[in-house]
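Troubleshooting log. The previous structure file for this entry was overwritten by mistake, so regenerating from the original sequence record. Sequence copied from the archived sheet and checked twice against the printout by T.R.
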Amino acid sequence: MTDVAVATPCQQGSRARLLSLQMTNFKCFDERTISFEGHECSCILGPNSSGKSSILEAIRFVTLRPVKNIRGLVRRCRPAILQCYVTAVFETERMGRVTLRRGVILDSPKEHRVTCAVADRDSALKELPEAKYASWMDKAICWTEADVISSQFSLLEENSVTELLAKLPKALDELEANAEISPPMLKRRSVSSQSLNSVSSVTGIRTKAEAWVARRVDELYCELSRQPLDEHYHSWGDGGQACLRRLQDGSFTIFVSERRGVAALGNGSPLECLSDGDRDLCAVALLLTLPGLLSGKAQLQDALPPLVILDEPDSRLDKRGALCLRRLFSGPGRPTQCMIMSLNNHYAFKDAPDTIVLPEVVAQPPVVGDALGDEDDPYGDARPRARAGIAARVQHK
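Regenerated output below.
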């Protein structure tokens, strides 16, 4: 087998683009390949149970991001197939096309293995231990923690506006702690002044970062809340204002107004009075802003994260909000690569040029005795809630 090339450390601008994703016996898919080639902002549309979230989960799995239940990635079917694979092809500047493959093999109802393999250009896949796979992948595709990958319902849970606001003080603390401070001068008489300058520098970095976050959140909220000027949504007017404020205890909140300037004067609506849609717009604005604080060097740039993947961010938005979301991610300052999963309830993405439509996946009918906890069930702990529910009904009878 041909050895793969040794990946070198990432350089600025050397991020890889995901070209295709092949899922084999993965969750709801028996075999499915999704192509992202030529797509800058892919709109993945489909009804419930069509596999939108499975695509996001496959991306998380193959790039070593956390997944909730690794055994649950294997598709449940009869006859049982006890392994699944995700194969991702990326385009890189330095290495050409590279391939990552990761799989799960269920050896028994309680034991499983995870396999990893890589390939560069036209070489064959070579299996690697997970630690080497992680190192090779990091250097090859250069995806970082500054990327935004938000799962379904996360805007209601871990990425809700209240949760993101709660994370902001810690992010500012870490930025302040990691700030680069010049070493003291050699002359003893200059130590005191140098120390004061260092403290002033660190304090200035935090103040600058806090002001940047406030401005950036307002700019993004303005884009996401623009008002249409015609019934066909062809022309757009100004958006609203989101005013970030630090409270006396060091926490943050947001005041919002439909007209620019009203919230800044103290007459905006407080967070607890906002509609679900407006809260989600604030959450998206914060979600796209906070990664800018992760560099640790206060290199604050007015740019969207290079990779943005959002699963049903429009679930509580109206058509106007969904169209504003699409405009933001397909406009001049768009991310390097973006994916939006949506039910498309308002048909805001129906005319998008990079649309991928998923049909509803037809579930396999259950087999009698499948969920009764048979000892020979190869999936083991795959359906604990189903077995518990059946056991309760049997006991009740």
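Residues 181-191, 367-372, 382-397 have pLDDT under 50 and may be disordered. Archived copy saved in two places this time.
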